[in-house]
Write a structure and sequence with these properties.
Number of strands: 10
Strand order of the largest sheet: 1-6-5-4-3-7-8-9
Radius of gyration: 17 Å
Order of helices and strands: EEEHEEEHHEEEHEH
Structural class: alpha+beta
Distance between the termini: 15 Å
CATH superfamily: Hypothetical Protein Pfu-838710-001
Number of helices: 5
CATH class: Mainly Beta
Helix content: 10-25%
Shape: globular
């Protein structure tokens, strides 16, 4: 029986200048308090077709280890720029994406094989943001990423994300986003880390690509 879970991911991604750090959001009254959690390292292997049809359709399929949600993650567009539907399955034999996830994207891949196209090693520093009622509001992650292709390091970059806590909305993130922009962060020009890692070939839809449902049950 499938152990799949499905959730809605609401997040904003930013590029930041050298020396940037999280502004004092609690001092500014944007949130009640911040909790700087322990840093950790994530390793994610991304899968796609030879012509990167998933990336071109803003779909991400990866096998990730090192965090609290080790497993297979499939992220699908919802029609809203900052919201995606995420499907999660536990880890199984490495190297082959689960059939359940492969079937979900077959309208996009047309049955073409899915193979590993890049590995991202992410040194992540998370900071939890708590609202004035004490409940979780969001999490900011400061990510230092190394991109490997064909066993070689081809790029390193830094990205900051702010993701809404479960039950929160994009509107709840608005004051946090405003504070980050004021601190020198700027919206990322990439839809995902995978698109950035894969380069220009991953950008832009291909005419005739199949459609993937914006949400799954």
């Amino acid at each position: 029986m499938s152990k799949r879970t499905t959730s809605e991911e609401i997040e904003r991604k930013f590029e930041v200048p050298d020396g940037w750090s999280i502004p004092p959001l609690d001092a500014d009254g944007v949130v009640a308090s911040l909790r700087h959690d322990r840093a950790f390292t994530l390793t994610a292997v991304y899968y796609d077709t030879a012509d990167l049809r998933l990336a071109r359709n803003q779909i991400t399929l990866r096998r990730r280890t090192g965090g609290h949600d080790d497993g297979w993650h499939l992220k699908l567009p919802t029609g809203h720029e900052h919201t995606r539907t995420e499907m999660h399955l536990p880890l199984h034999t490495p190297g082959e994406p689960p059939d359940e996830l492969v079937r979900t994207v077959i309208g996009c891949t047309h049955g073409a094989p899915l193979t590993a196209v890049a590995t991202l090693v992410n040194h992540r520093r998370p900071t939890a943001l708590l609202a004035h009622d004490g409940a979780p509001l969001a999490e900011i992650t400061d990510d230092h990423v190394t991109v490997e292709r064909d066993g070689r390091v081809v790029e390193t970059f830094r990205e900051v994300e702010v993701e809404a806590a479960p039950g929160r909305t994009l509107a709840d993130l608005a004051p946090v986003v405003a504070a980050l922009l004021a601190s020198g962060a700027r919206p990322s020009s990439f839809a995902s880390k995978a698109v950035r890692a894969l380069g220009p070939a991953a950008a832009g839809r291909v005419e005739g690509d199949g459609e993937v449902p914006p949400s799954v049950g």
